[in-house]
User: Which sequence fits this backbone?
């Protein structure tokens, strides 16, 4: 069993524009599928694990609003994020798109970095999103994918190399996501041989873990609970101060 790549479904009648989006998205680790008609888009969204639908909205075409309306009417697809990429001359479709239930609109040309940032932060890896495989092998949260068998970690498709202690700490935090974990609990998880470990040592290893996870460009999801411990919490970006560990060391020392 392997962890699937995030799946984007593109609805468009323009092959060249589709290929441009494929180039942008696949370079960031996404799998991309094309639907060139309303029925095909709805069918693909129902039959495959789609994370987001990008609808090419063009002047003279009704594909985007009609496809969005159908997606929002189907119980299997109503929760999928739909994004309209509105081309020149199609601005008049805004009302139709809003009535259809579109979640977001972008006016073309849109900077690839802006689109990718939106997909990363608000669609594919929403705060609080997580999953496990049936056998408990995979843990996923806020774009982080941890394979407990292969001892591998990826974030937003980028491989992250962790030492054994950092890996065990990350696994424990992900298993107890959005719950405060005391340093005593983290010592037990990170150092199973139960040897004596200072509080400052825990802070150092959590700092290393933070740094490794942030290499992929994502927000800091490890929140410092002052004088207590840490929490894996993607809903509170910015709560983790880069100097928090140093301050905790001073307070606890």
Assistant:
């Amino acid at each position: 069993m392997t962890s699937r790549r995030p799946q984007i479904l593109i609805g468009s009648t323009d092959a060249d524009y589709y290929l441009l989006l494929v180039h942008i998205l696949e370079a960031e680790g996404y799998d991309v599928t094309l639907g060139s008609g309303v029925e095909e888009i709805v069918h693909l969204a129902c039959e495959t694990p789609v994370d987001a639908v990008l609808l090419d909205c063009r002047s003279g075409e009704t594909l985007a609003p009609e496809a969005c309306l159908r997606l929002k009417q189907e119980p299997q697809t109503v929760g999928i994020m739909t994004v309209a990429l509105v081309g020149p001359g199609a601005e008049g479709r805004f009302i139709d798109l809003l009535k259809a239930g579109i979640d977001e609109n972008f006016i073309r040309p849109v900077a690839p970095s802006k689109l990718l940032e939106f997909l990363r932060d608000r669609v594919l890896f929403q705060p609080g999103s997580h999953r496990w495989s049936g056998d408990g092998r995979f843990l996923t949260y806020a774009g982080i994918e941890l394979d407990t068998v292969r001892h591998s970690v990826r974030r937003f498709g980028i491989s992250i190399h962790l030492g054994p202690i950092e890996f065990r700490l990350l696994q424990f935090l992900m298993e107890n996501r959005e719950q405060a974990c005391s340093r005593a609990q983290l010592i037990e998880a990170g150092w199973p041989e139960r040897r004596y470990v200072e509080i400052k040592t825990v802070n150092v290893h959590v700092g290393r873990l933070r740094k490794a996870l942030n290499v992929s460009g994502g927000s800091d999801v490890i929140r410092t609970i002052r004088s207590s411990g840490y929490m894996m919490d993607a809903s509170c970006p910015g709560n983790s101060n880069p100097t928090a560990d140093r301050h905790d060391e001073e307070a606890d020392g």
DSSP finds nine helices and 13 strands in the chain. The CA atoms of residues 45 and 183 lie 44 Å apart. Confidence is low (pLDDT under 50) at residues 125-135, 237-253. The first helix runs from residue 15 to 26.
